[in-house]
Design brief:
alpha/beta, two-stranded parallel ribbon, 8 strands, 22% helix, single chain
Length: 216
């Protein structure tokens, strides 16, 4: 977390939180002046990595639940228009002829946005590795693949409670056998993460500052 002072301030204590019926994509646009300022000629030092992390910002609802991932330029527009406040920011700065400010990494909306309920998200290799912190569920070593605890060839389902991160060695040794057959025990209990956190983890490589807000 940067030592720069946060951009904008939190809502006044005791102020009511209004609930809007719009979805995230329907958030009001920033004032034209602000959009022009952050949308043209802005430079982010250091560029971006392969996952696009440098140019993405985690947006939280007013309830502090993960909402979606937006571009840095969109994040700055939300801040300048007073629709969001910065919780985490970078040491690098956005620069243009008329603007210089730290790169926001985590934003929180000042007003709650209602999001329709979505069903469970099926596990993917990336989201399972993210959930298990890239640690093997059998030996706790670095994991680079996933394994079905109850093998699919023997009726196991492809669901969160039946899949864990695994290292290649353990995955190969276990093969299509049951844990009871080889005397192994899981070091973790596989569970389904919160839906939105799973979506975010699968969609983009999270910035380190996002961790406390994505939860599990």
């Amino acid at each position: 977390m940067s030592t720069h002072p946060p951009i904008g301030g939190p809502p006044l204590p005791g102020a009511p939180v209004r609930r809007a019926s719009s979805a995230p994509a329907d958030l009001p646009a920033a004032p034209q002046g602000a959009a022009d300022t952050v949308g043209r000629g802005v430079v982010v030092p250091g560029g971006e990595d392969a996952g696009g992390t440098h140019r993405r910002t985690l947006l939280l609802n007013a309830s502090r639940e993960p909402l979606c991932v937006v571009s840095v330029h969109r994040a700055v527009a939300l801040v300048l228009s007073g629709k969001a406040v910065v919780l985490e920011q970078d040491t690098r700065e956005l620069r243009s002829e008329r603007l210089s400010l730290p790169v926001p990494q985590v934003l929180c909306l000042t007003r709650y946005v209602h999001v329709p309920y979505r069903g469970s998200v099926p596990p993917t290799r990336r989201s399972v590795l993210q959930r298990d912190a890239h640690r093997c569920g059998y030996c706790a070593g670095p994991a680079d693949t996933v394994d079905h605890v109850h093998p699919r060839s023997r009726g196991g389902a492809h669901e969160w409670t039946n899949v864990v991160a695994a290292c290649a060695r353990c995955n190969h040794r276990k093969a299509d056998r049951l844990l009871s057959e080889i005397g192994w025990q899981l070091l973790v209990t596989p569970t389904a993460p919160r839906v939105r956190a799973a979506v975010l983890a699968a969609a983009v490589r999270p910035h380190p500052s996002w961790g406390p807000y994505l939860g599990g």
